Amino acid sequence: MLTGRLLTESLRVGHDMSVPDLRVVRIGRHDVSSGASEDQPPVWTFLDFEAPDGRADQLAQALADALEPTTGWYADFRVGADHVVVFAHRVFRYRIGDQPARDEAVAWGRAAGTPEQQLDWGD
């Protein structure tokens, strides 16, 4: 079972996302004003999800299509021994512990405008 997190504020306005077998397991709103950039709202809605491992590629593509491209937002999930980090129109999937592959995803995030303190997804 893959597990991950999406910030609902990261979705493009007017875009619906649908992935069969995707299940929401937790929703919470949190004040993150100390870690948000000027372009991001101070309160975020965290949506934790899970899905069968076989939905990983479909979910990654759906997220890549749905994420707002102008602010460096990303979503991520783990599937087996892999970590999947998704930015608008770009998916990174790497084996947990593969530092060069992780560094490539972090570099993409920097270039896309993701604030440095938000490039700390755990592996």
Summarize the helices and strands and which ones pair or pack:
Layout: E1 2-7, E2 23-31, E3 43-51, H1 56-66, E4 74-79, E5 82-87, E6 90-95, H2 99-112
Antiparallel strand pairs: 1-3, 1-4, 2-3, 4-5, 5-6
Q: Can you list the strand order of the major beta sheet?
A: 2-3-1-4-5-6
- Main sheet? 6 strands, antiparallel
Look at the structure and give the mean pLDDT. Answer: 95
What is the percent of helical residues?
10-25%
Summarize the structure.
Helices cover 20% and strands 34% of the residues.
Description of the molecule:
By secondary structure, this protein is α+β, with helices and mostly antiparallel strands. Helix content is 20%, strand content 34%. The protein has helices spanning 56-66, 99-112, and strands at 2-7, 23-31, 43-51, 74-79, 82-87, 90-95.
Using brief descriptors, characterize the structure shown.
six-stranded antiparallel β-sheet; 2 helices; 123 residues; alpha+beta
